[in-house]
Specification:
Blueprint lengths: L10 E2 L7 H11 L4 H10 L4 E7 L5 E7 H4 L6 E3 L26 E6 L5 E2 L7 E9 L10 H14 L2 E15 L27 H5 L2 H14 L3 E6 L5 E6 L4 H21 L2 E4 L13 E9 L16 H17 L9 H4 L12 E3 L6 E3 L9 E3 L8 H18 L22 H9 L2 H7 L1 H18 L5 H7 L4
Parallel strand pairs: 2-7, 13-14
Antiparallel strand pairs: 1-9, 2-3, 4-5, 5-7, 6-7, 8-10, 8-11, 8-12, 9-10, 12-15, 14-15
Length: 480
């Protein structure tokens, strides 16, 4: 897939991100494949501490920090297995169905992926970070951990001679600091001294309100070798979107994981919050993580969605058919919380069914205008609160099943498709039940992962049900 055309750019990526400094950084990191090279890399930068991190099911960074000398001394790094059976609120749900605990809470091993070694630019002392895979005591990949789930799906494509290519777009809100969760979130005050109103899509002024923060995002990204394609102001008040360059799914999932952390840290430096909640503010648009996808034939290097004469292939149609049929059953991996389903509602510039169309942003699956070599499918359903590894794994799983089962799509739509009836799961538990009930998905993702993930999601729903909302106090207190 050639570089997909982006939305109108409000503020282009920093020139430094395109310049020699970034190229030198990336080239220097590509050489980090062995422990000897890691020692040299750390010594050259006088790194004092190393963060060994991995995403849990929610995409929260977990891991350990240690002196650089200990990191390179063949130290065994372990985490308790219970971390991957924990809800977003820190609880451990009861066993349900096939969801079971290891009663011993045995150790899992962190295996650093040295190619991801990079700086942590917001730390005051010279600090590095490295992403880690999770293996058991025998050195085997742990099937229910997010990075391994995505690797499993990509491996199925590779076995067919295919190479998936993706390009994520991540939306998020800047909000004023809020230390009391009982109070609604508010837009932050920009350099003008006023809060940014809604309805400012692609506004240059909206971006410039937070120039210094945006510059810090660029600088932090540059220091980590993260590549921003474009950055725009979205429709919501102080809602921004970052588009990433296309590439390998695991690499892009790593980028999203690191970008979320980077953006939060940059915002905190300016005494505001950055949030990736799907629906943080009532009455305005939610935040999505759109995923552009195409598939390359490994032997020929050609996009399998396009025939030699430039026309659409059956593989292209089957990929879309798979998205239509299987995405509702995988939605809980792309809309993982109760809050996520508040975004999937009519009138909020968000898909509400599985329609597809050509350059139609009201559909769930949009086919942008492009040259045949860049033909791709944009999945517009995932929300920005999703774990990037699991959202990509889910989206590629749907396409894979469509390709291998020759699923035929419905005709494309030309009208507005995001109004009226919602033809997607409307609640977290409904989405969990759909995932649990589809054997074909279990075969792709692994039964252990599905059981673990669904058990955690049920536990999160039960925690949510313990909270009494303002709506209940407003309408039930004196009326029922």
């Amino acid at each position: 897939m050639t570089q997909p055309p982006s939305k109108t750019t409000v503020k282009p990526a920093s020139p430094l991100l395109r310049g020699a400094k970034l190229r030198n950084f990336v080239e220097s990191r590509r050489g980090v494949e062995t422990w000897d090279q890691a020692r040299q890399w750390l010594a050259a930068r006088k790194i004092e501490d190393v963060e060994c991190i991995t995403p849990d099911l929610a995409g929260v960074p977990r891991g350990k920090m240690m002196p650089a000398s200990k990191f390179t001394s063949n130290t065994s790094l372990s985490l308790p297995s219970a971390l991957f059976r924990q809800t977003i609120s820190g609880d451990y749900p009861e066993e349900y169905g096939e969801f079971r605990y290891d009663p011993n809470d045995g150790d899992l091993k962190l295996m650093p992926d040295l190619s991801t070694l990079s700086a942590v630019p917001w730390e005051t002392d010279p600090t590095a970070q490295v992403l880690c895979d999770i293996v058991n005591t025998k050195g085997e990949p742990v099937s229910y951990t997010p990075r391994n789930v995505l690797k499993r799906v990509v491996g199925l494509y590779e076995a067919k001679g295919w190479k998936p290519v993706v390009a994520p777009e991540i939306e998020f809100y800047l909000v004023a600091k809020n230390v009391d969760p009982d109070y609604p979130l508010q837009p932050p005050v920009g350099r003008s001294g006023r809060a940014i109103p809604g309805g400012n899509a692609y506004s240059i002024a909206g971006i410039n309100e937070f120039d210094e923060l945006i510059d810090d995002i660029y600088h932090f990204s540059e220091d980590q070798g993260l590549e921003i394609d474009t950055l725009i102001h979205e429709d919501g008040p102080a809602q921004l979107e970052i588009n990433l360059r296309h590439g390998d799914p695991l690499h892009l999932a790593d980028q999203v994981f690191m970008f979320k952390r980077t953006i939060r840290e940059a915002a905190m430096k300016h005494d505001i919050y950055a949030t990736f909640m799907a629906k943080p503010i009532q009455g305005v648009a939610g935040s999505a993580m759109h995923i552009h996808q195409s598939i390359i034939d490994r032997k020929t290097g050609r996009n399998i969605f396009s025939a030699p004469d430039g026309s659409e292939t059956q593989a292209f149609k089957h990929f879309i058919g798979g998205m239509q049929f299987y995405i509702p059953k995988l939605l809980v991996m792309m809309a993982p919380y109760v809050n996520s389903y508040r975004r999937l509602a009519p009138g909020m510039s968000c898909p509400v069914n599985t329609a597809w169309g050509y350059d139609n942003r009201t559909t769930a699956f949009r086919v942008p205008h492009s040259e045949p070599a860049a033909r791709r499918v944009e999945n517009r359903l995932p929300s920005s609160d999703a774990n990037s590894y699991l959202a990509l794994a889910a989206s590629l799983t749907a396409g894979y099943l469509g390709l291998t089962k020759s699923v035929v799509p419905t005709p494309p739509v030309e009208h507005s498709a995001n109004e009226g009836t919602v033809d997607l799961p409307r609640s977290l538990l409904e989405a969990v039940a759909l995932l649990e009930g589809e054997p074909a998905i279990h075969d792709v993702l692994g039964r252990e992962f599905v059981a673990t993930y669904c058990g955690v999601k049920r536990g999160e729903f039960e925690t949510f049900m313990q909270v009494i909302s303002p709506w209940e106090r407003e309408y039930l207190l004196l009326n029922v």
